[in-house]
Design a protein that fits this description.
single chain; alpha/beta; Rossmann fold; Leucine-rich repeat, LRR (right-handed beta-alpha superhelix); 23-stranded parallel β-sheet; seven-stranded parallel β-sheet; LRR_dom_sf
């Protein structure tokens, strides 16, 4: 581990090249089970890796797909799956994220797929966007094959770097074995005989960490000498499977599992290798399939039992924790599960044909295909218990055939208990799903589904319904999306929809008394929609009640019996129509009688018009276990409860409570002990009358106040003039429109852990003690100072030599007044990665001091952004000296008429909203490093000069007077992406470069034909044609094309190429991703 950590810390790169000079790559090579992934997980989570701007973890496995890997990278960054389909759009999105960022990428479990050159070509597509990362970026690869390291070395054109993992030393392996074998044992020295046996067992494990963990879990099952001897004397002769030699050890661990857990584990082979398991969802599947045995413990639910099963499997290392509530299974254990469940489980991936003979014992089937013929064969499996069906229609008309096939499956396979359906085009699930009378779990991923089948409400054994399609604000949902008699499903535990409005429409929802999550219950003054429906819903874990103004009296409020719901963890209470109501007393009485149970962990109250706290909130013992509290839009609430005494409170949000004048001593607690002992995040917003944190009677010593606070956000509290000292663990502080005068850093510790400081709209502040505290602000990386007109100092009372001996290690600085750059300690800066100057209407030019400052940071500045500077007439004259600058963004600078020389290192230039700019400089063609150029809303721009020779992406949008493209365009042999949007005077496209892969043409009012050269573009994969009203026909298209979108062009064109019907449809029907539509184009396509 130390060797890899040192490699990560070392920014040097002996083998720099033009393309991947900023990136180093190290391959971790070792047999299966040797701990490659575990090692990198420890490194990935290490504090040291926070030095990287971005971190990504991608499991590649043996089903390598270029688009999937890039999508996984983006998901790892953004925590959501990108809704992009083409390789080019995915690459472009990743390139944007990578621009001038130092990243760490882990590519886990890479296999050799095909011949080396084809693999190499695929990985070139994956790694191309990463070339835009900044110096010091690192890629870590795990693989079982030496050839992978050689292949990557060829891709990035560097000498291969390999770290071989040969297994643990015997003493290290024994330590790991004992950690798992004696888990939850207070003193392992009390088991000396067992320790001796462990010493013999470890000799048979060949240093494998996986074997040590798994066998440790087997031993931990029974701390009995006879059991341990049985394990020692078991046959450890290795069965060679692929490249690993520990298969018999893993099988032994399976043998010692309790019987119910064996099925739970083996069933997991239905999923792909490296599948990310959601703990709760997997437990639901186990319950639906009958793997969970009922408990005799009173009050223990099936979910509780399943949770215990899962935790045992985790403890025995059958699962490894990946993220919060997310887990993975080692590929060798996945192979073991496949081996065990081979007679009951079968998978079809891509377009593999079903084998001629499938045992009748098959109970679990997973099919991923585009081939309807494969699906037609499913109906013959009469004994299926679970079916995972993922189909991608090539043509819209295929969905009618799919519907017929589903009908046959539902009629034939009536024993199905678990059903997963995925199809991006299917609009209806056949009513014949009603034949599946044993169905307990239904999960659907059908983006175009218009409503659920009416027969759904007749499946009385149904326990879990999950609809996981994306939802966007403003999306219309039919009132009858759910059957009107959904309340018949009394066994329903879970109903999850992307929106909650449909759930609120269920009449008499109180009959669903097994429901655990009610994400939205909208009260109405009608029978079947009143709060009394909640009376017997005692299994609820999560509850959100809206429109509480419809509760008319205390008896109605009491009828909900919230206090009796002993599993309720998450409660949200909302009133609506705040402005027109003046029922303070009623709101107070209602809230008094909505007392939650003591087990509650999350509480949100919104729109409450009462002036006081509810009685139950004043008694700390009644809300003792709460971890998260959010109070919003409580416009008349005056006095806050004693939140400071809550021992487990981690998150507190107070928003729009304009009557709160001070956070009284009751807020902090009634004693002089530690206040808010567990609070990590505090957000205060819109407390306009707030004057003091606490009254004079409270002793708030630094070490007693917020000992665990890491994030503090204060906004729109203009009367608040003082802040307490920085909390000892505070990492992020943001203040906006606060009346404070300075920052009190306190004197608790030698170093201040603050990483992010945001100061905005603070007119009273005159100084910030950055220079005075420079020796202690060792962690500060992100600094934003805006709209502080009276700020005259960043400290500086220290001796000048002290300031020179220490430097802030800022990476990102955002300001709106460049004069701040002349204040110490910024004045002495020599290192910064990103500078943003924005939102200044008075800045005309840069001062001499600012110009000198740019020169000082010239070797480190990677990214410069100038935005919303309404009076700026010139860019810094020192711009050409910024030798490390990779990205320059100039947005909304309307008075700028001329671009100066730009540094030769520049890779990305983005100019938008510079209306006075009449031409681009001719020297642009000499900037050979420039690969991305984006030009938009430049009203006077009539023509373009010759462009840089290695340009990779060109975006032109909202250029009203541009009437032609540069003549050099066909010679740009590196250009892969061309986007032209809202260029109304453009009448034709000349020849295009052969390298082009993605072409988007949008809102070109006078373009009436496309160039004949399109058919000769061998690399073109995506063509997007949107809003071209004069375009009547298409030229011949290249065979390489994979995606074609035609949207709102001339009616004649739309008719000729109408999907499945037009006279020329046959000319484009073979393109896999073809779409001809009159619908409005998606925002992401029309944005340029």
């Amino acid at each position: 581990m130390a060797i890899i950590m040192n490699w990560l810390r070392n920014p040097s790169n002996k083998y720099q090249t033009t393309l991947y000079g900023n990136i180093s790559l190290l391959c971790i090579v070792g047999h299966g089970g040797m701990g490659k992934t575990t090692l990198l997980q420890h490194i990935y989570k290490d504090e040291m890796t926070k030095e990287f701007d971005l971190k990504m973890w991608v499991c590649v496995s043996n089903n390598f797909d270029v688009k999937k890997v890039i999508a996984d990278m983006l998901e790892s960054l953004k925590k959501e799956r990108p809704h992009l389909e083409t390789l080019e759009t995915l690459q472009d999105s990743l390139r944007t994220e990578m621009m001038s960022k130092k990243f760490l990428l882990v590519l886990d479990d890479i296999w050799e797929e095909e011949e080396e050159e084809r693999d190499k070509s695929k990985w070139e597509n994956v790694l191309a966007p990463l070339a835009f990362g900044s110096f010091g970026s690192k890629i870590l690869v795990t693989t079982r094959m030496n050839s992978i390291a050689l292949m990557f070395a060829k891709v990035i054109k560097k000498k291969k770097e390999i770290f071989r993992l040969e297994g643990l030393e015997e003493d290290e392996c024994l330590q790991l074995l004992n950690t798992h074998a004696f888990a939850d044992v207070e003193n392992s020295n009390d088991h000396k005989k067992l320790s001796a046996i462990a010493g013999e067992i470890v000799k048979k494990l060949s240093g494998s960490p996986l074997a040590a963990k798994v066998i440790g879990g087997v031993l931990n099952f029974n701390l009995d000498e006879r059991h341990w001897m049985t394990v020692l004397e078991s046959n450890f002769r290795t069965t060679k499977l692929g490249q690993n030699y520990i298969f018999s050890i893993l099988r032994l661990s399976y043998t010692f599992l309790p019987n119910p857990l064996k099925s739970c584990f083996a069933f997991c082979c239905i999923f792909a290798q490296d599948h990310v398991f959601d703990k709760d969802d997997l437990i639901r599947m186990w319950i639906a399939l009958g793997f969970i045995q009922p408990s005799h413990i009173q009050g223990e639910t099936m979910e509780d039992i399943g949770g215990r099963y899962f935790d045992i499997l985790v403890k025995k290392s059958f699962f490894d924790k990946f993220e919060r509530q997310k887990y993975k299974m080692h590929d060798l254990l996945h192979e073991l599960a496949q081996n065990i469940f081979a007679s009951e489980c079968f998978k079809v991936v891509d377009d593999e044909e079903l084998p001629l003979v499938i045992p009748e014992t098959i109970r679990h089937l997973s099919v991923q295909t585009k081939n309807l013929e494969v699906l037609r064969k499913i109906g013959k499996f009469k004994h299926l218990h679970s079916l995972f069906l993922s189909y991608t229609a090539i043509y819209a008309r295929d969905n009618q055939d799919l519907g017929n096939i589903l009908i046959e499956i539902f009629k034939a396979s009536r024993s199905i208990r678990l059903l997963y359906l995925s199809d991006p085009l299917l609009e209806m699930i056949p009513e014949e799903i009603g034949y599946l009378i044993h169905l307990r779990y239904l999960k659907i991923d059908l983006i175009n589904l218009t409503k659920m089948p009416r027969s759904l409400s007749n499946l009385l054994h149904m326990q879990f319904i999950i609809y996981c399609a994306p939802w966007f604000p403003g999306m219309l949902v039919a009132d009858d999306f759910l059957p009107c008699d959904m309340n018949k499903l009394s066994n329903l535990h879970c109903l999850e929809l992307p929106w909650n409005s449909s759930i609120s429409l269920i009449h008499g929802i109180g009959k669903l008394n097994s429901l655990q999550n009610l994400n939205e219950f909208c009260l109405r003054n009608e029978i079947g929609y009143r709060i009394e429906e909640l009376e017997h819903m005692n299994d609820l874990h999560k509850l959100k009640i809206k429109f509480l103004e419809n509760v008319k009296d205390v008896n109605e409020a009491r009828s909900a019996k919230l206090f009796d719901k002993r599993n309720l963890m998450d409660l949200s209470l909302e009133w609506g129509d705040i402005e027109s109501r003046n029922l303070i007393d009623l709101d107070e009485i209602v809230l008094d009688n909505l007392q939650p149970p003591k087990c509650l962990k999350n509480l949100s109250i919104q729109g409450y018009t009462g002036a006081r706290s509810p009685t139950w909130m004043k008694n700390v013992s009644l809300i003792h276990n709460i971890e998260n509290i959010s109070l919003k839009n409580c416009m008349k609430w005056q006095t806050l409860p004693p939140f400071g005494q809550l021992p487990f409170l981690k998150y507190l949000q107070l928003c729009d409570m304009p009557k709160v004048k001070q956070l009284l001593h009751k807020f902090y607690g009634n004693d002089k002990y530690c206040f808010f002992p567990s609070l990590e995040v505090l957000h205060i917003n819109g407390l306009k009358a707030l004057e003091n944190w606490f009254d004079a009677g409270v002793a708030a010593e630094d070490e007693c106040l917020f000992p665990c606070l890491t994030e503090l956000e204060l906004k729109d509290c203009p009367k608040l003039e003082e802040l307490p000292s920085l909390a000892p663990k505070l990492k992020s502080l943001a203040v906006d429109n606060i009346g404070w005068k300075t920052l009190n850093c306190g004197c608790i510790s030698n170093s201040i852990p603050l990483e992010t400081l945001v100061v905005s709209r603070c007119p009273n502040i005159t100084s910030l003690p950055l220079a005075d505290e420079i020796a202690r602000l060792v962690a500060l990386r992100y600094l934003i100072i805006k709209d502080c007109p009276n700020l005259i100092s960043l400290g500086g009372h220290q001796e000048v030599e002290t300031i020179k001996n220490y430097q802030l290690k800022l990476t990102n600085l955002t300001i709106n007044d460049p004069s701040i750059l002349s204040m110490e300690p910024l004045r002495s800066f020599t290192s910064l990665e990103k500078l943003t100057i924005e939102e200044n209407d008075e800045l005309v030019s840069f001062s001499t001091e600012a110009e000198q400052w740019f020169v000082k940071v010239s070797s480190s500045l990677y990214e410069l952004e100038l935005k919303n500077l309404q009076s700026l007439q010139s860019l810094p004259s020192s711009l050409p000296s910024l030798s490390s600058l990779k990205s320059l963004l100039v947005h909304s600078v309307p008075q700028l008429q001329l671009l100066p020389n730009i540094p030769t290192s520049l890779q990305k230039l983005d100019i938008f909203g510079v209306e006075s700019l009449q031409c681009l400089p001719s020297f642009l063609s000499t900037v050979s490093s420039l690969t991305c150029l984006s030009l938009g809303r430049i009203s006077f721009l009539k023509s373009l000069p010759d462009l840089p020779p290695f340009l990779n992406k060109l975006t032109l949008f909202h250029l009203e007077n541009l009437d032609c493209l540069p003549s050099c365009l066909p010679t740009l042999s590196s250009l892969q992406t061309l986007v032209i949007q809202n260029v109304p005077k453009l009448r034709e496209l000349q020849d295009l470069p052969l390298s082009l892969r993605y072409l988007q043409l949008t809102s070109l009012d006078n373009l009436d034909h496309l160039p004949a050269c399109l058919v000769s573009l061998p690399s073109l994969q995506a063509l997007m044609i949107l809003l071209l009203p004069k375009l009547r026909e298409l030229p011949d298209l290249p065979s390489s094309l994979k995606d074609l979108l035609i949207n709102n062009c001339h009616p004649e064109l739309m008719q000729r190429y109408r999907m499945g019907e037009g006279s020329d449809w046959h000319k484009i029907a073979h393109i896999p991703g073809v779409n001809v539509s009159d619908l409005e184009p998606l925002d992401q396509l029309s944005s340029g």
